[in-house]
Amino acid sequence: MSLYVLENEELTLKIHETGAELTAISDRKKGKDYLWNADPAFWKRSSPVLFPFVGSLKDKSYKYKGVDYPMSQHGFARDMDFHVSDKNENSITFTLESTEATLKVYPFPFILNIRYTLTAREIEVAWEVINTGKDTMYFSIGAHPAFFCPLSKEDRQEDYYFAFDNKAPLIVTKINEQGLAVTTEEPGLLSTEQGILPISSHLFDDDALVIEKNQSHKVSLLKPDKTPYVTVAFDAPLFGLWSPAGKNAPFVCIEPWYGRCDSDDFNGSLEERTWGNKLEVSKSFNASYTIAIE
Does the N-terminal peptide bond of residue 228 adopt cis geometry, omega within 30 degrees of 0? Predict the structure, then answer.
């Protein structure tokens, strides 16, 4: 497994070719690590890319042109080996192309490019999905970066906060035990104090918090003194917040998504999935998000 490094005077990034996964963000001056270290005692990943699905599918399968295809949670890209297609002093691009194996479970030829660019104390993560097949392509894509929280061993996670660029209460889609969006109950409501939400010990008891419909496009993690140390900014229409329930895990995830899990009452085909993306033949989809280390 090859590991690639990008660095400047401020930060060092490490990226694995498997999943094109960002595995470290380290502050060279402060000696701090910001990205979760994939300790399997809590969670064996750091920042997987979710493609061609985000979240869980009902009955772990989807229907396309009358055929049922099996698919695990978050798709297959995170477990596949990418190759480096471009690299310079400030950026590196990883590429994944469809294979005979992927076509058996996802019948769309594609190219997926993931580019990491490091500028001062900011990382841009850019995705490009190219439809190389002969039919309209349907897909989702998302990020799943996990950040240390607390940042210091002397602190408690319960003394940290999320901060949103929207100061109004956030409507939260509930997720059931099967990882599906609940339609039989009213959505939850996250009340904040001027956009600031304490990370309480029970915040993730019911799994991830899913915030849809462009309610926020910037989320920061705040130290106990309410100063930010990580900010994730994105144009994605929805995002998730997550940490494993009941594990006292020392990290939280801020996840920009173009897509989400199925609803618990969903019985349609791939083309009808909520928040799915449609890509015509020979066209490309481009999106990005940034991680700023304060």
Answer: no
